[in-house]
């Protein structure tokens, strides 16, 4: 990335302010132990699948919506999303009495479409990629004079997601490593910014599906890169390109980004269901899949945390995956 275009990174003060701002409407999710290998260091999972609207996205969407002024809220808000951010924005907008429009891919799971509408949002479909729905959202925002609330590439979104990092440090002061999914990058960026400000010694690892490894490719290139056809059962991590601001945070704060395959994602879903009785969507199990992969390759140090980022999966699809794998 050019030195002339270096963005301003989100500060600890901004993340702490976000935590205070969203506290009335966002849950402080539990940190639960699981034990796939009793001889290994403790593994804990941060249960964002139990968050309002079923995923971590409620944090960033709420943080941005709560900062919008009255005229902006009267105009309404819009976003583009494969599902979880759309649900979160719809829920946050409803809490402020504002209308919301969400542009979703034609391949969006019905459970996410139905939930977004149930929160009161209008849903419009556009193509199958992030680029498709972003272009349509930008067109509709200009046409209807709506306020754009992007899914990951905005400081308010990153600060909101960073509140997960604050909670992890508070709930497990001895933590040594934290694993988080890397899609567009907003979550891992915010978590890493918070943790490195409080505990620079803690390793932060981003995890992405091998079929949608945009962050790995971008780090290799030194700038955000676009994938032609990302593919994975982890539908929430199929952004074709990392956001510019999240990517800058990953470069600055994330120690490593690793890839997992589809079978490892399903195995992590099984561990969560069997060990912790948790329902995680494929995207939500990716961080644990990465942690378990690392555990097979090296000795993990001290307590280790994986963020279970969401649980919005139809139960028949969940059962199908656990029965037959990816």
Outline the structure in words:
Strands 1-2-10-7-8-9 form a six-stranded mixed beta sheet, sandwiched between helices. The protein is of the alpha/beta class. It has helices at residues 12-22, 57-65, 70-75, 84-95, 110-118, 130-144, 155-171, 186-198, 214-221, 244-253, 262-276, 282-297, 315-324; strands spanning 31-34, 43-47, 77-80, 100-104, 122-125, 147-148, 177-181, 203-209, 256-260, 304-308. Helix 2 packs parallel to helix 4 (84-95) and helix 2 packs across helix 7. It has two domains: 3-55 and 154-324, Rossmann fold; 58-148, Rossmann fold, CATH 3.40.50.1100. It is globular. It is built from 13 helices and ten strands. The protein is 46% helix and 14% strand.
């Amino acid at each position: 990335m050019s030195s002339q275009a270096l963005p301003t990174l989100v500060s600890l003060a901004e993340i702490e302010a976000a935590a205070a701002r969203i506290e009335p409407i966002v849950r402080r999710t539990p940190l639960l132990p699981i034990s796939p290998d009793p001889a290994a260091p403790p593994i804990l999972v941060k249960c964002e699948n139990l968050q309002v609207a079923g995923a971590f996205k409620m944090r960033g969407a709420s943080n941005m919506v709560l900062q919008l002024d009255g005229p902006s809220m009267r105009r309404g808000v819009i976003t583009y999303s494969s599902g979880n951010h759309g649900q979160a924005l719809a829920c946050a907008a409803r809490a402020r009495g504002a209308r919301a429009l969400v542009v979703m891919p034609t391949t969006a799971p019905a459970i996410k479409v139905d939930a977004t509408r149930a929160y009161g949002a209008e849903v419009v479909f556009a193509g199958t990629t992030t680029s498709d729905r972003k272009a349509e959202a930008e067109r509709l925002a200009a046409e209807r004079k709506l306020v754009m609330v992007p899914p990951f590439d905005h400081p308010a979104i990153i600060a909101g997601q960073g509140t997960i990092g604050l909670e992890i440090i508070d709930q497990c002061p001895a933590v040594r490593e934290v694993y988080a999914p890397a899609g567009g990058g907003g979550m891992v960026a915010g978590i890493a910014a918070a943790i490195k400000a409080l505990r620079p010694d803690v390793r932060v690892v981003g995890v992405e599906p091998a079929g949608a490894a945009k962050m790995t490719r971008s780090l290799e290139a030194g700038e955000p890169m676009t994938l032609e056809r990302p593919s994975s059962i982890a539908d929430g991590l199929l952004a074709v390109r990392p956001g510019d601001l999240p990517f800058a945070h990953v470069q600055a704060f994330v120690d490593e980004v690793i890839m997992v395959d589809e079978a490892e994602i399903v195995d992590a879903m099984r561990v969560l269901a069997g060990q912790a009785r948790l329902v995680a969507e494929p995207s939500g199990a990716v961080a644990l899949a990465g942690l378990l992969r690392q555990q097979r390759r090296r000795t993990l140090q001290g307590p280790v945390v994986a963020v279970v980022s969401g649980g919005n999966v139809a139960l028949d699809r969940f059962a199908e995956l656990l029965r037959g794998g990816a």
